[in-house]
């Protein structure tokens, strides 16, 4: 039979196959609409509103409500802790089950499988692995600041190893867990039915300590999460007491006690504004850093080790080892010789052996940057308020909610004890009446046929309650003795005092708070301990590039063509006087080396341009290159304008006195003195240093203290010495004053600061040089033509460099236009008068001339050996400082 020949299904009327527009709208069964509520019926189903429970639902509404119910179940019943006791439901149920079964700190350990089975069967209808994992975490002293389960057996490790199977391990509660459960049997908290109504479980624990902040919590719910770090018990108790004594206490008052998180793994924590924000708003962060020590290797003298004994909270030491090994393998970190994990008996010890040529501090900083030895804990202090409302809370909010909870607990406990005391006093009053009328009581009892009749008679004759009458009937004959009578009276008197005291507590909230305070201090005295995590109140911030750069001696060179580079000072080897040197920087034919600066990689350099502007960079920001490399164009390093070049580089000392000046000289003999403070904020785009006239260029800059003498020298062998006071301080935009009067064809070649008992070193462009005592250069007024410095002729060539040197200088490094370098001891250079040409100190190739020179200080470069061999120095050897 074909589909078209099939008959309609039984029970369907022909009219039900009609088009919608032909359907009788008055027929509720056909139209699918109820005349009463006009609710659309499910397609294809005839709904009888009088007998059916079927409701019309759209898929959207059903999914929305079902997902909302699921979400709230996860939020309230699984993922988020309660602000009052700081526990998630699974932790609360584990502790309640162990407490109910007598598995307390004073009892024997019991099999974990038995505990898990009891929790799962009575209170927590989820997988046994989830319950066991939660219980195991409560026993891990690297996960919990104050453990609540005392485990016996393998409960895992810091490296993430799973606990042994529950059939092998045993557990019981710790003493601190008793603190959370104290007075739970005194109706202090509400109980609710379990999942099947067969048992009752507490909705919250009494919690004599603010456990939410003590042990912290981490959890992920639907659309929300919580992340609360652990804290120190003593600090939290002190902050809570502060809030009890002073309800108007500010966050600043509380932070005087709560220094920051106290992680069970110790380490270091860097707070600052972000941590303060976390305690104010509930959201923020704190940077955690492992504690490490750099020590000398006992087995290999001269080498060092980095020993790590504490890691950030939640970081696995095994993962750190793997990451370091990966970084070494990928050559992202150099200088590590070996890596070992020597941890034992719960004491962490990771040892990183450093190679002989490695820098321990640099490597440690790299490890902090590239591994989890430094990580961040993000605060998101979300908890359930009143057991149902998830809220993000600050420190003050959490402590106030906890105090409110304890107020309820203490009041309910007091009411329970009052009720119990009043009930006992009521019985004792009845017994006292009976003892006072013992003969009549006995007679009444003997005259009664049944105990019920005797009870009724006693109640009627002596005006007793039913409870009192029953107590009299149950009274033993030994109570008739005088001693027993006295005990009853004494007990009754004590109870009356207790009842009065309990009533006064309920009538005065201050007494309730005083009890909370006393109990908190008792918990602190019993379980308080020293802080494990060292807190630093400042922000650590991001890593400074300088932390990852070795502090080593380098030479920064600058060419007339605008190329800059830095090279290790050890590559410039000492030569004897008259030596030829070795091949240095490769330059273009028209390019020459103009300046060489001996500095440390951590020194600050000021770059002055021929246009009168100044820039600022750290030495390590100048790209490193080999001795023979050309370097980088300055325009790629600084924001230079067209035809603007670097004319002078000066190295700033580590500490600059506030009254220092920058003394500037130009090629036309103009000088200017400016306070150094005017150069404090140098932008990346540069700053004006001097206003220049047309055709003039800034060339020399020196730091002065306001009481120095200046010597200016020219290419034709003239020099002038004058006191810097002759040049008054001027602003950065000033043009300056005349320093020396130049003859036609002459120009300034050098400017330096005079040092008494020093020598003036003169070097000519053809390699001649000499030293002349500074005393031979008499002082004159600024602006004169000066006196003779040296004889200048075709043999010597014009002067190329003039420098004031003292005994602290050890060597001179001279570089020629063609890139040859020579390193000469200053003791090898002869001392002569002003009117001499000097001696040859550098042998130059034909057509080559001296380009620039710089100096080394005594003891500043241990790597410079006094030999002419071509043996390559170790470029990583750290200079002695």
Domains (count): 5
General shape: elongated
- What's the oligomerization state? single chain
Proportion of residues in helical segments: 25-40%
SS-based structural class?
alpha+beta
CATH class (first level) name of the largest domain: Mainly Beta
Strand order of the largest sheet: 14-9-8-17
Largest sheet geometry? 4 strands, mixed
Radius of gyration: 45 Å
| CATH topological fold name of the largest domain | Neuraminidase
Q: What percentage of the residues does DSSP assign to strands (E)? A: 15-25%
Count of extended strands: 41
What's the helix and strand layout?
Elements: H1 28-31, H2 59-79, H3 89-100, E1 110-111, H4 112-122, H5 128-137, E2 149-152, E3 170-173, H6 175-181, E4 191-193, E5 200-202, H7 211-215, E6 217-220, E7 225-228, H8 233-245, H9 251-255, E8 268-270, H10 273-281, E9 283-289, E10 291-296, E11 304-310, H11 317-329, E12 336-341, E13 350-354, H12 360-370, E14 374-380, E15 382-385, E16 389-392, H13 395-436, H14 438-447, H15 451-462, H16 466-473, H17 482-507, H18 509-527, E17 534-536, E18 553-559, E19 563-568, E20 582-583, E21 593-600, E22 604-609, E23 613-618, E24 632-633, E25 646-652, E26 661-666, E27 670-675, E28 687-688, E29 698-704, E30 709-714, E31 718-723, E32 737-738, E33 748-754, E34 759-764, E35 768-773, E36 787-788, E37 799-805, E38 809-816, E39 820-825, E40 839-840, E41 850-857
Helix pairs in contact: 3-4, 4-5, 8-13, 8-18, 13-16, 13-17, 13-18, 14-15, 15-16, 17-18
